[in-house]
Structure formats: C-alpha cells, structure tokens
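Forum: Protein Structure Q&A
Topic: Joint prediction for protein chains with partners

I've read a bunch of threads here and the consensus seems to be that you should model interacting components together rather than docking separate models afterwards. I'd like to see that in practice. Below is the full input, 1340 residues plus whatever partners are listed. Could one of the regulars post the assembled result?
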Amino acid sequence: MFLPYDQGLEHGPRDFFRNPAAADPSYIVRLAVEGGFNGVAMQVGNAEKFYAEHAGQVPLILKLNGRTELPSADAPLSPLNASVGDAVRLGADAVGYTLYVGSARQAEDFAQFRTVRADAEAHGMPIVVWAYPRGSAVQAAGGQDSFYAVDYAARTAAELGADVVKVNFPDPTATTGVPEPYDLEVSTPQAVASVVASAGRALVVFSGGAKASDKAVLTRTREAMDAGATGVIYGRNIWQRDHDESLRFAAQLRDILARYPTVREDPS
Amino acid sequence: MFLPYDQGLEHGPRDFFRNPAAADPSYIVRLAVEGGFNGVAMQVGNAEKFYAEHAGQVPLILKLNGRTELPSADAPLSPLNASVGDAVRLGADAVGYTLYVGSARQAEDFAQFRTVRADAEAHGMPIVVWAYPRGSAVQAAGGQDSFYAVDYAARTAAELGADVVKVNFPDPTATTGVPEPYDLEVSTPQAVASVVASAGRALVVFSGGAKASDKAVLTRTREAMDAGATGVIYGRNIWQRDHDESLRFAAQLRDILARYPTVREDPS
Amino acid sequence: MFLPYDQGLEHGPRDFFRNPAAADPSYIVRLAVEGGFNGVAMQVGNAEKFYAEHAGQVPLILKLNGRTELPSADAPLSPLNASVGDAVRLGADAVGYTLYVGSARQAEDFAQFRTVRADAEAHGMPIVVWAYPRGSAVQAAGGQDSFYAVDYAARTAAELGADVVKVNFPDPTATTGVPEPYDLEVSTPQAVASVVASAGRALVVFSGGAKASDKAVLTRTREAMDAGATGVIYGRNIWQRDHDESLRFAAQLRDILARYPTVREDPS
Amino acid sequence: MFLPYDQGLEHGPRDFFRNPAAADPSYIVRLAVEGGFNGVAMQVGNAEKFYAEHAGQVPLILKLNGRTELPSADAPLSPLNASVGDAVRLGADAVGYTLYVGSARQAEDFAQFRTVRADAEAHGMPIVVWAYPRGSAVQAAGGQDSFYAVDYAARTAAELGADVVKVNFPDPTATTGVPEPYDLEVSTPQAVASVVASAGRALVVFSGGAKASDKAVLTRTREAMDAGATGVIYGRNIWQRDHDESLRFAAQLRDILARYPTVREDPS
Amino acid sequence: MFLPYDQGLEHGPRDFFRNPAAADPSYIVRLAVEGGFNGVAMQVGNAEKFYAEHAGQVPLILKLNGRTELPSADAPLSPLNASVGDAVRLGADAVGYTLYVGSARQAEDFAQFRTVRADAEAHGMPIVVWAYPRGSAVQAAGGQDSFYAVDYAARTAAELGADVVKVNFPDPTATTGVPEPYDLEVSTPQAVASVVASAGRALVVFSGGAKASDKAVLTRTREAMDAGATGVIYGRNIWQRDHDESLRFAAQLRDILARYPTVREDPS
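Posted by a regular:
Agreed with the consensus. Here's the joint model:
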C-alpha cells in the first residue's frame, strides 16, 4: 500500500484545495507513517527538504521524472529531474519512473528509461514504473484506460525491466478502435487478471485516480487483489479528506490487503 | 532584498535609456553595495569583468541561463550560458536559473535544471529559481501572472529542488481559462499566501516587473511580506531612476523588510 | 533455428491470446529448450527475470532495442533499451538489433547502431540485425516486403556490420514504384538467392511473420534453404499453438534444416 | 585592425572573382603580414594548411564556427568546425565565434557558445564574437543592421562573456517594428557610442560588409573611432582589389586608427 | 585513381545487376588489386569481412558515413557508421566522409565532421571528403552539378579541413538561380580549374557518376587532369562491366593519369 505524492507537480496545487494541509509535504510524510503505508512517493525537491526527519519510519520511493499538465499532452515525455544517485543519497528504497507508452516521443522515453534501469541495477535499487498509455495514438485506440492500452503498458514496462508496475484499472468496455481480440468485451476481473499476467514477474499495483466514493474504491481494491494484484497506490483518495478520515480509510484498505498472501505464487 | 541585473540580456539595452548610467555593470554593483542589498544577480560576462573589484562587498547570484526577447516566446527555453563551476570560481553565493513552467520545451528545461541542481548540491551552492509561467498553454490558461500559473510555477520549482523561488505577484482576477478551483476569485493576500505555501520550505521572493509608482511598489511589498514572503527582488524599480533616488527608495524598502522576522516559522 | 520472443513489446499481449501460456516468458524459454532451438531472442526485462534458470540450456540473443506498435510508423525508430554490457552480464551469445531501413529517422538509427556495433566488437559479441524496410518512402516503393526493399535492407545491414541478417521473405510481385531492375518480376527462389548474395558473408535467416498454415511455412522454409539461407527464425508460427503441437512443428523444421550444410561455401 | 577571411565559407568563392588571387589563403596571410594587420581570421582548414609558414608574423584568430549561405537563414545556427584545442595547437592568439542573436535556434547557439567560453577561459584564450542579429524575428524588428538589433547583439555578446565584439555599423534610420525607445531616430555617432557602451568592457570592432567606396569606408572608420570603437575588421574592402591597392588602403586605415589611444578609458 | 564501392549502401544492390559479380565485395577488392588502383573505398561491414585477406595489396579508404537512397533527400544527412578508430584497426590509409553542402541539416553535418577531423588528425589519418551539394536550396540554385554548387562544395570541404576533395564534374551551363558571377557561362576547363583553385592545398579528385561511354569518360578525365585535378574516382564506370573489360578500361585511365606530375605545384 503506497502513498503517491507527485500530484503537486503533475496537476499543480489545485489538488490541495480540498484539504489545504496536504500542500505541506511534511504532513503527507507523517500521514504515511501514521497510516502504516509501505512507501511514500515524491519528487526530489520534497524528498530533500521533508523526508530526512522521518527517514526510517516509512520507505521512500523517489520519483525520478515528472511534468506539469500545462504543455500539450499530444506527445508527452516526462523528463528526469533526479537520478538514482539522488535516491541512494536520500535513503530511498526504490525509484519511480513514469513511462508514457504510445507517446510519439516514446523512443526518447525508452532511451531515458534505459539509463535509469542501468543505474538502478548498478545500485540494487528496485524500479516502480508508472506505466501510462498516452498520446494521440492511444486516444484513437480506446483511450488511456482501455483494457488494450493498460495491458500493453503493463507488458511494455515489464519487457523493459520494471520490478513493480503501476497501472490504472483497465476498462474492458472501451473497445472502439482497439485491435483484435480486445474488441471483444471481457469482465473487469478477467481484464485485471490479464494485466497481472502480462507483467510477468513484475509486481502490479493499481492506482486510484481522481477521488471516488469510499465504496467504489474498496470494491475496486478487492477486485484487483482477487485478480492477483500485489497492492494499491492511492493518493487523492487518501489525502483529499481530513487527517483522521485519511487514517480511517487507510486502515480499511490495509484490512483488505491483509487478506491476501504477501508473495504471489509464480504462474509458471 | 536582491538587485537583479539580467535585463540587458532579457530585454536588451532599451531598459537602460531611462538612466543611461545603468548600462554600466560597474555602476550597478556599486549601487548594490551602497544600497545595502543582500545580493546582486548578473550573467557571467558581467560578473567576470565587473564583480571581482567589489567581491566581498555584496553577495553575487550568478545567473546561469538567459535568453533575448527576440525569438518567438511560444515555446521558450532559457539555455545555460554559465556553470556552477563558474559560480564557484567567481565567488558567487548562489546561482540563478530561469525555469519556464508550461513551455512546450519544458521537458528540455527540466532536464537542464537537473544538471544544475546536481552540480549545485555537489558544491553546496543554493539555487534561486526564476519560476516563470510561459508559452502558449499558459496564455490560454489565464496568462503568465494568473494566480493559477504563479502558484503552479512556485510549486514546480519547489518540487524540482529550488531553495529560493522568484515569482511575479499573482493576479487573482485572471480567471479565464484556468482550472478549478482557480476560477473562483480570491483576495490578493490569499493568493500570495497560497503561493508561499505551495513553495514549501523554499523561500519566496517577489519580483517587481516594469517600473511602477513608488506607492504601488511599497504597498505590494507590504502585502507580500504580510502574506509570508521572504523578500523582494526589484530591478527596474530600483535602477531606472537616478543614483540618489535609487538609494533613497532602497532604504524605504529595507525599512519595510526589517519589520518582518528573518526566518519564517515552519508551517508544519 | 531461432525462437524470437519480442512480440509482447512489438505487438502487445494480443499475440498471446491464441495460446495464453505464451504470455509467460518462462514457458517460452522452456519451449526453446525442449524444441532444440539454437537460440531464443528476448528483451532485457524478460531475460533478467526468466533466462537465468535456464542459462546454458539454450543460447540467448538479447534484443537490445524495440518499440510498441502504438506511435505512428511513418518514421519509426527502435530505441535501445539494453546494452551490450547487459548481454554480457546475462550470458547472452549474441545481441539483436532492429534496423528500420528507409525510415525518415534512418540517420539516428545508423548512429545508434554504430554504438552497438562498436560495443559488440569490443566484447566479441555477434550481432543479429532485424533488417526491416519501413516508413513512408518504403511504402511508396513496393512496400516493406518487396524484393527491392528486402534486398536493399539485407545489403544495408551487411554494409553496416551485421553478422546475421534477419529479413522477411521477399515478394517479387511487388513491383509498383520500385526502381529498375526490380520492376521486372523474378521467381521467389531467384529473389531469395539475390538477398542472400547481397548480404555477403553475413548469414541470412528468414522470419515467418503472422501465423500461416503448416504447409505454407514448411514450403517457404525449403525454398529459403535451397536458395542459400542459413536458417529460419519463427515465433508466432511456433508458440501460437499448444505446447505439444509447438514441439511437433519445431521437429519438422529441424528435419528440413538438417538436410543443408551448416556452413555455406564462400561465394567468392 | 583585423583581416577577416571566412567569406569563402560564408559566401562561397564568388567573393574571390573580383581579385582571383584572394582565393588563395596563402596570398591573404601574406597580405595581412605586409599590411601590418593586427590579426587575420580564418577557418581551421585554411589555418592548418597556410598559417604555419607565417606563424609569428601576424596573429591568428581561429574562427571556430561557420556556415554556408545555402540553407535557409530563417533560423540560422553556425556550427562549430574547430575547437579551442585546435586554436592552441595552431598557435592562435584568439578564437572567433559567430553568434546569431535573435535566431530561432538561439538557445542552441548560446549552449554551444558556453562550451567555447569555458574552453577558452581554461586556456586563457580571448574570444572575438561576430555578434550578428539574424532570423525572422530580427527581420520583423528593423532588420539586421538596425540600431536596436546591433545594440542588442553587442550587449548579448558581452553578457555571455565576449572579450571583443564584432558588429556591423548600426543604422539608426531603421525604426520600423523596433521597440521603444529605438523608434526615435538618433544620429549615427550617438548610435555607435551606445553600442560601444552596451558592450561594457568588451572591446568593439566594426565590420565593413560588402565593398564600398574608399571615401565611405574611411568616413565610417573615423565615425566609429570617434564614438569609442576599438578598431575595425574589414575583409572584402581590403582584398577585393589588387595587391598594391590593398596595401595602400590598409595604410590609410592604419593612419586613422593611430590617432586614437590604444586603450579606452574605463567609462565607470 | 581510386575505386569507390559504397554504392551498395547509397543506391542499393540495383547497381550490381549489370555485373552480378560486383555484388561480392571480395571481387571488388581483387579488381582493385589487379587494376592497380591507388585505393578502394568501402563501408565498415565490407571492410571487416573482405579487406583483411588483401591488406597490403591495395590501400583502403574506410568510408565512415553513408545513407540509403530511400528517405527523402530534401535535407539529407549522412550519419557515421564507423569511426577513425575502426579505420586504424582495419589498416586503412585514409578515411572517407560525405559532406552534404547546402542541406538544411548542414549544421549537424559540420558538427559531425568536426569530430571526424579531430580524430583523424589525432591518428595522422588523411580525410577524403565526398563534397556533395544537396538539398532543396541547392536544387533552387542551379542543381547539384552546377559550377556554383560544385565550386562552393569544394571550398567548403577545404575550409573545414579536407585533405582530398571528391567532387562531381561541374556543369557551367547550369546558371538558373545561381548568384553572380556564376550566372555567366564559362568553359568546362575554366570551371574545373576554378574548383581546383577553390580547394586550396586539398587535392581534388573527380567522380564519374552513372556509367557513360568509354570515350566520354576518357575525355572528361583528360579535361580534369589538364585543369589541375589530382586524379579520378570512378566506380560504376569500372565495375559495371565484366572483369577483363574493367581491367582494360582501368589501364586506359592509368595511362592518362601517368602523363601528369604526381605532385601539383603550389599555386602560391
């Protein structure tokens, strides 16, 4: 159960208006500690200034790249703003990388990821890949949440060397423009299971996206875990409510996750 | 209280016609000494030829990148023209970097900034980021001075590792095209306070822009400091008048700033 | 006889729906061992997580670059996602590289290949080049399978330093838009022989493409070998059927190949 | 008084038809020696093959970058074709660099110049910057010889670290499209003096451009020197006439320059 | 008298259909030995696999860059596919480089050439430059064989540091769109002599282009040598005929060249 906190860069401070305390990275790190999260993900600027005082209390996933929502997303690329060396220096337990599968700038992205993978392997640092289908080609093929797109993104991250893959929940009803056999609608659990299988031995965690009702989030979490997910990585659904509510909801999620074995059986 | 002197490159010598003496970098460095400024910011060419004789009398912020106003600003990028190594060699106390948040070339900018941050950290050199929203996406979302744009720019600089963030005063009336909740007008002090909060532990200094009336500048300065700003960085409002007037106005600003504590309380 | 397994990246998991077991890289490596293949080609992510337990049982061709089918293929470039150093570390016997002959980004491709060739030579590692005509210029000149395009691609790979060239079967009936003398139709065996000659001392293996009938594949295999091919590299025609069928068909192919001498006579 | 000889590359051999002997770099170096020039500027190919035999007789300014007039000049960039290391090896006393102020590729230009400046400083080699306003933005703002453009170019070169700035004579009548206060016509001597002031402690030499009448060139030279110029750098006005005429005219120029003090007083 | 063999890459195997034996690089190297050529030029792939067995029998010019004719030639760039280090390792006596003078990608080309020149000088390796005017600007200015274009290309190569310049025969009748004074038609010998003069101390060899009648080729050879050329570099005119015919024609060429002094007098 991870707590991602890169929305200040990716979406801007507008994500903090529901709960202004969440604009303070120190508040988030404390929340991660109190909520018993297995890791908190943040950019280098925040990690440098706010993580040290809580080091050892919650693992850090240093997010190595990022972008703002301002420039056009027709051909997005998320440039590196930190290095594996920074992660080592800051005591991180893993690094995070956003890979825009399908973007017209995918070639640059793969090349950039290669340097991260090589550095991470040299330092024994696991890589969590935000495997996000994006760009105009993806829009034309079912959109970024289609089963086709999410399945392909999970596979791509695994083929390139991810240790953990973070994906959105696949939407098997998005079949317009997708290639065979994805044009045949399957159930959500089938789609989730296929995504988990496509990632091979890379662990799969599902992200939450915009804030939804508690019930919807809990249901989706159970579905994902039933289908073989390793865990979840929810940000706005956690910290876009007040402090005690955040902790209460985190506890509910933890209860669900505790019902599943820590290590998946190898499918082979 | 900083004195910026990069306008000769950014705008050209036209900024010096109101007070031709200001075209001479030596005059500006002396003014910074006499006016009791906490730093003077300039490009490498000027720093190399004019700072040495006043080294130790006023701190130097070596501005590492810059551009001219001539090429189209649809997708601006401010290329490096100096290095952290130059800053060390010239005895600078900090480096300055212009980050164009929202530019279509933002990915290149982030990548370039990363090299600066890494070098600066290796040399223990603080980084002042000119956090400027720019480019066609910004023009479509309230313009470069909108609360949305300035708030996002301050946050972006902090997430990427700035120690000091230089922004324009936010204009909360610029709500056309901005996303929720920025489309709801707030007061200027609220907007300034939000910008300061978005920057986390990075210090925030507000810039002055084009020359305005003394009264307007002093009022804005008080507003900024009340809302939690660390200081101000005014250039044209200082040196686009004759020598003694510059010193008199600097003294007024210094008086205002002296009423506020040097170190902000940590908001967390 | 090689078993290529880069389709998960190049086409996405849709290639695994005919035989879901094939989504598991471990299954494929075991199939390569059991089927007596001379090598299995895969990307770094799969090689790292699935090859080690079978190392020594079947040679590994580490595929160093790849792309997804999502971004437009008007000007494709297959970026590196692994290095020759990775190949050495993983115990590979050769490296694989996709060269898009004719792409508008060909200049970048050649430059990238140069670094691979230099590294491979420094480590004594043979290079298998997927020599694929691609891009709008190729579409206008008979298409990617025309005799003209395949012949030119094989030659290009050899001139640039390939040790083994992987090409599609040339289609001598695709004569629209091709330059002299390719506008004169020749027989398939003549075309295959010409491609083999164009590659000089680089060995030529033919790929299978989408799944076809067993009879068609076996006929084509005989034609290729009669015309001087070194071998074949079939993926979907092997693993898009159930396990025992895969082994049965691999045995048939091995029988054909066994009838030809291992080392070609030097044509000079 | 410098003799520039980069026109064979910048304009092509057509500049040599008025005096075919001038196509021979050896002729030009001898002319520089006989005419008592303070330096001859040339590209690396010519310097390597023709300068050595006259080394010590006239200083060499190795021009480090250049382009041909063939590709479109909408967004020009003058790529490096030699290094500061070449200049050291060839016994040059300075390096030359063309900076296209205002070009859409200005960012690349600044980045490239930065490497030159860093290398030149490391070797104690002065830098002469050909500060040339160029590109479509410049065309829209008074053109490349407007007072605005030349003044801005001189300032830009100085801010980036030039030791000597080479500019064209400013034309104060070109006021269409320029920003305030350049839209007010001033006298040529005022414009020249402003350009010299904008360059700070960088020395300013004025170039001659296409061949003009002797009288016009001599008048302009006196105007420039009266306004504070350090010297002149004339090429075609020298060598686009026969040998003895070249020497006679160079002597006239030398006489003018001799009337001015070698070292300018510091304006500060 | 050089034998170039880069057509397999530049034009594709279609150049080998007139004499299929010529597709075999081994055949070409033997032809160069038997025909008494002063050098054979080829790409790294062919040099690595076919030159070693004849090393010492004929000098090797390792061609370091190349492209296929497939991608659009509007803005061509010939990327490096080998290094000077490869040339040293393979026992080459010189390196070859194609420079596309006038291409919109000329800046990249110059930058790339600079690295080759620096490496070549460090290893004492002479550089033969294929100085080819190309791109849309060249098409608009008389075309790639106009006297203007060829003269400018020869000069450019020399200014950038070529030791030997390979150009096409200039066509002085191509005067449409060329600048003064090239719009005045001169004789072919005058044009050839001008090209030789423009190249300074760089040696000039003329290429043959597509196969022409023996008589035309011999006449052009005499004209070139009369005008000061150093030699010729003919490929298709040699090997697009059968073996004995090739040797007979090479002997005729050698007889012509033998009538001229080996070392040109220095024009200065």
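Residues 29 and 51 of chain A are 7 Å apart (CA to CA).
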